[in-house]
Amino acid sequence: MSRIGKKPVQLPDKVQFALNGNVISIKGPKGNLERELHPAIKIDINDSVVTVSTDTSNKKKVALQGLFRSLISNMVTGVTNGYEKKLVLSGIGYRAEVKGKSLILNVGYSNPVDFQIPDGIQANVEKNTQITLSGIDKELLGQTAANIRDLRPPEPYKGKGIMYAGERIIRKAGKTAGKE
Hints:
Layout: H1 3-6, E1 9-10, E2 16-20, E3 23-28, E4 31-36, E5 42-46, E6 49-53, H2 59-80, E7 83-90, E8 95-99, E9 102-106, E10 113-116, E11 121-126, E12 130-135, H3 138-151, E13 161-164
């Protein structure tokens, strides 16, 4: 059995949980999130505790139980506290700027890159090289951060590129390191 899937999800006072057919809807102070359930998953709501259950004879269903329990927990955290990811631009002349719903990135290409920020995600740029993304949907936030990072991933020789804050780039030695 799934250890994570068996744990109940505690709902804070400000969060409303609704189950319509196989669609979960969670409302909180920061916004609303919805997700469709897999048919093998069953949800039980008692007071302010949500329990996820399924048939434990199939390994795939047990994995789905743990997955949906984590997704529900992430949704509850998102509508109460929200999520935040930080990206850092490293390189000479690399800078970012927010204009409306687009993020303009100068990251070493001949033209600036215009990245459209999806709905539900807010972007903020500090010191021209630090991008802070925030939102209530953890999945969308992580995918947006990964898409921005993929525009210019950090390279191993000089460490230039777009990286997550706190990410450690393993550096390689250049050509002169091999000569004696």
